[in-house]
Amino acid sequence: MDDIYQINVAKTEFREAYNRGDVDQLLSVFGDENIVDMSEGGPSRYGMAAREGLREDAAELFAEFSVGLTVIIIEITVLGNTAYDYGWHEFTLRPKSGGETIRKRHRYFELWKKNSSGDWKISLFINNADVREELGGLTSHWFLSQEKSGNARTSTGSSKTASHAADKPKFPMSL
After folding, report:
1. For a designed S-S bond to 50, which of 4, 37, 139, 168 qualifies (C-beta 3.0 to 4.6 A apart)?
2. Can you say whether the dihedral through the CA atoms of 24, 30, 32, 35 is positive or negative?
3. Cα 99 from Cα 112, distance rounded (Å)
4. How buried is residue 32: exposed, middle or buried, by Cβ count under 10 Å (0-12/13-18/19+)?
């Protein structure tokens, strides 16, 4: 199987783990050890501390929200047994206790390593909140369903809603 295809399959598993709220499936996409998590809003974490931190953060997120994730991959580059990809993760968060839907869009970079079984696993994850582009007075569109429904707020604000500095939740690995 082609390496780029294998990474795309792993990214599908990543997306589906979020959409199902499955912590174990999400962690299965990451290496077992020697991983690095440099997610926005949290400390840099390394090795097993990164893995456990990702587990705790994902469990907390999935307990509080039903999550919808759309992955937008810009590029996947394979360099032997190492690869990287980057793009955007768009999250739709629906509070399980009721309340307003939150949408977040993060830029991400992932470094992948092929393990001894030939499986591609994330070894380094970096993300940060994306910022809408403006050109000639026009603002880029994210979450086209939001434009139609007008019933959700975004963490970066929009013409329909205010930005909230204390938006929850903290997003490890683009959570």
Report:
1. 37
2. negative
3. 37
4. exposed
How many Cα atoms occupy the beta-carbon half-sphere of 112 within 13 Å?
A: 27
State how many domains the chain has. 1
- Residue 56: which CATH number? 3.10.450.50
> Using one digit for the tens of pLDDT, what is the confidence trace for 103-112?
999 999 999 9
Element at 56 (helix H, strand E): helix 47-64
Domain with 86, as residue range(s), is 3-174
Sign of dihedral through CA atoms 72, 75, 79, 84?
negative
> ω before 172 within 30° of 0 (cis)?
no
Q: How far apart are CA 118 and CA 3, in angstroms?
A: 9
- 123-151 pLDDT, tens per residue? 999 999 998 777 788 777 676 555 554 44
